[in-house]
Amino acid sequence: MKLLPATITAALLLSSPAVAIVGNAPALNDGIGRSVVTIVGSRGNFCSGALIAPKLVLTAGHCVQPGVDYRIVEYDRDRKPVLKTVRRVAVHPSFSAQSIQAHRATADVALLELEAAPKERVPAALGVPQPPLAAGNAFTVAGIGVALPGDGKSGGVVRAASLVATGKPGTLQIRLVDPATQGAKPGLGGCTGDSGGPAFETQAQAQVLIGVISWSTGPDLADGCGGMTGVTPLTLYRDWIVQTARQWGMPLGGN
């Protein structure tokens, strides 16, 4: 399994963004794509996140580290990057970096409070997966990660992939594969930089954010991307998200 954040050069910030999500996924400028943001750290790492309130971003716990400053990247009308300040960060208290390194399920969620609301971004509706969770259930993941593994310059534009659950999905982890390849051959899936990106499920004819991207594999569980995408569902963690948002003075809609 491959953890998705990676060290990158300043090229991601200095050049126009290109593509994301491996497997020739199309760019996504509307709909759920409008909630996705780019997160960069002072140590050169980058991740995806999703706006869930005007100044609140949900991402993966392993995307944020103590002692690192984070910014949100926006692009002006000329497609030049503009860095927006992150005011504070909270990682779920049950998150275990050791578990992530060992590829075990953990509370891989974190929140970022922004100083100012991003322009042209729309908060996503927050929820949990519908029961019963079963193989074949459909989900959509979105992120700004690389389209070509190892090529940081190929990341930056929001892309999405429609995937299905495989194995025995549960409250700790949902493993997703491209329905056309079933993870046995290269297909659609998360890659470097997609960590923290949202996973959506259609509920009552609306797209609801039900989890965050945590890891990826290549085909047949090999290293790389385009095989399996691991999602941490919000079933056990939504209450913490709601409570933290309320403590920060940003109650979420419907709560």
Estimate the helix proportion, in percent: under 10%
Give me the side-by-side strand order of the main sheet: 10-11-12-15-14-13
Examine the secondary-structure arrangement and name the CATH architecture of the largest domain: Beta Barrel
Beta-strand share of residues: 25-35%
| Rg over CA atoms | 16 Å
SSE string, helix = H, strand = E? EEHEEEEEHEEEEEEEEH
Average predicted confidence as pLDDT: 86
Strand segment tally: 15
Structural class: mainly beta
Q: What is the CATH first-level class name of the largest domain? A: Mainly Beta
Tally the helices.
Answer: 3
Unreliable spans are 1-20
Secondary-structure topology with pairs:
Layout lengths: L1 E2 L2 E2 L3 H4 L21 E6 L3 E9 L2 E4 L10 E6 L5 E11 L5 H5 L8 E5 L10 E2 L11 E6 L15 E8 L7 E4 L20 E6 L2 E12 L10 E6 L4 H10 L8
Parallel strand pairs: 9-14
Antiparallel strand pairs: 1-14, 2-4, 3-4, 3-6, 4-5, 5-8, 6-7, 7-8, 10-11, 10-13, 11-12, 12-15, 13-14, 14-15
Descriptive overview:
By secondary structure, this protein is mostly beta strands. It has two domains: 114 residues, Beta Barrel (Thrombin, subunit H); 108 residues, Thrombin, subunit H. It has three helices and 15 strands. The chain has a six-stranded antiparallel β-barrel. A six-stranded antiparallel beta barrel has the order 3-4-5-8-7-6. Strand 11 and strand 12 form a beta hairpin. The longest helix has 10 residues. It is globular.
Task: Looking at this protein, list some descriptive labels.
six-stranded antiparallel β-barrel, mainly beta, 255 residues, Thrombin, subunit H, disordered N terminus, single chain, 35% strand, 15 strands, 2 domains
